[in-house]
Amino acid sequence: MSLLKPFSKLPGLNTANILLVENEEQFQQKLADTVVLQEKTVNVNVLARSLPLPMENEESRPRIDLVVFIIHLTSELSFQSAETSLKYLDPGYFQGKVCFLVTNARNVSVPPERLVSVRKLAASLHCPLLCAEDQTTEGVTTAAHRLLAILKVAAGLVPMATGLYLSTLTRCTVPSDIDQQNFE
């Protein structure tokens, strides 16, 4: 198992490749189908389901332009799986080619510390953090639109914009007082 490197392959013409990493694969397939259906001007490929990627077929695997970690806040295993998968990415990916997508952020049964942990992880890696509603078609479509916008920039399909520039504008930040939560 080797590190996934962002610039080890040449990009395809009018092609963008996204890797959706999710532990449970419940939201992943709906999101993948929606992403492919939404984009008509660019050929979008949704690749494998988890990291590390298998060594076989490494030569024929296309360049991955964006890695999305899908984290369900109702599952502690989902967050742990994302943390574990991070070690299989080359540090070059954290320059505008990684983002986190969380679901169930409004769920009352989710401990607030779990969202804080995800925010801290995204902020420490200087990555965007998107929230999505996975229970409705409209929520999945909205998440797909957001990911497509980031994917096009990360793949170099938007003139005068780079993934690194976009990540500086959209990265997650954590307020210094987030550890002292006061909801009074």
TrEMBL record:
Output the Gene3D superfamilies linked to this UniProt entry.
P-loop containing nucleotide triphosphate hydrolases
Q: What keywords does the record list, in alphabetical order?
A: Centromere, Chromosome, Nucleus
* Main location, first listed in the record: nucleus
This entry carries the following GO cellular component terms, namely: chromosome, centromeric region; nucleus
Q: Subcellular location, in the record's words?
A: Chromosome, Centromere; Nucleus
- Which Pfam families does the annotation name? CENP-M
Cleavable signal peptide: none
Extract the InterPro entries matched here: Centromere_Cenp-M (IPR020987), P-loop_NTPase (IPR027417)
Question: What PANTHER family does the annotation carry?
Answer: CENTROMERE PROTEIN M (PTHR34436:SF1)
Write the protein's name.
Answer: Centromere protein M
Tell me which species this is from.
Salvelinus namaycush (Lake trout)
Its gene?
pane1
